[in-house]
Amino acid sequence: MKRTVIKSTGRYIPSRLVTNDDLASMMDTSDAWIRERTGIEQRYWIPEGEIVGASDLGLEATKIALDKAGWKAEELDLIIFATLSPDIFFPGPGCLLQHKLGLSSTPTIDIRQQCTGFLYGQSIADAYIRSGLARKVLFVGSEVHSTGLDKSTRGRDVAVIFGDGAAAVCFEGVETDKETGVIASVLHTAGEFAESLMLELPASRLPERGLLDCEDVARLYPTMNGSKIFKLALRRLPEVTLEVLEKAGMSLDDIDLIIPHQANLRINEAYQKTMNIPDNRIYNNIQKYGNTTAATIPLALDEVIEMGMIDTTKSTLLFVALGAGLTWAASIYRFGE
Ligand code: ACO
After folding, report:
1. Dist. CA 206–CA 229, nearest whole Å
2. Which of 175, 210, 244 is the last residue of a domain?
3. 5 pLDDT tier (thresholds 50, 70, 90)
4. Quick check: CB of 160 below 6 Å from ligand 1?
5. Which of 37, 120, 154, 322 to mutate to test the pocket of ligand 1 (most atoms within 8 A of CB)?
6. Do 33 and 151 fall into the same domain?
7. Distance CA 151, CA 328 (A)
8. Whole domain around residue 194: which residue ranges?
9. Would you state the pLDDT for residue 202?
């Protein structure tokens, strides 16, 4: 049977460390508030004044993942790029990355699923691989949030939670009788909450882009109804976890490690408590990076592999996320060929 396995992972974090105290010098906030409400201690931003887009961070993560896989870019059948912070409004960063990899005709798919970008991307890779349309698929999740945040007090609820970063995963189709690779995926969207977390402009629904006045500048930054999203996460994350376990015919005891999206440590702690998950079976790194959105889950996966926290010959992982859209999703992945 054809299975979708992870051949390699890679991550790239830009060099500029930004502490909570650094943010407090830009807006009315404090290290204590950010730690207490979100668990975030620091994040990384791209170097000040440099022109760096999501495709640039994605390129660095891709080079590492391709190198670890022993693949040349030319071998890729498909590139899937997930971001909410594209280099330019269109075309998508998958096209830009493809060119930076020296490719001239490899297909690319750009997806706009924010914090669930990896889970949607993984399910697309799995569908292409299982159907025989592709054998080697590159997924890239990459975000340059820092250039698009309102760093005044007006934007402090959103600005303090996001960080820049990228991660890449090489997926490969293999023939095996074992139950390995992507075991089950569940994807959901509730567009009714789209405006609870959005970046409105530029927008095709506006009659004339040139007519924007000075007040519209605020609409060029993301806005969020944080408490609404928070409450939705507390309900949906446990729900979708149970749903994907049922789909896979598994229980939580079969899972060696859960990697949840990193939007707020308080959300993940509440999720852990609700699901009764022991500390050694859930991984959080939001303290170091903030929310890197589409990069978050593959970035954490790359870290846990590097730290030897999982056995890449047999561990079973559960990924779960919720974010703008509203989208929420979960998947179960088992290592081993
Ligand atoms: N520093 C200091 N004070 C702040 C800050 C800040 N950075 N931000 C907000 N405040 C103030 C508010 O103005 C408010 O003051 P008031 O009581 O005088 O009006 C007070 O703190 C409480 O504000 P809340 O917004 O209610 O704070 P909350 O405890 O909800 O925390 C947060 C805000 C961290 C954003 C939280 O709501 C959250 O994490 N929500 C979920 C985010 C999420 O999961 N998003 C989805 C993923 S992201 C993606 O998909 C792209």
Report:
1. 26
2. 175
3. very high
4. yes
5. 37
6. yes
7. 28
8. 181-334
9. 84
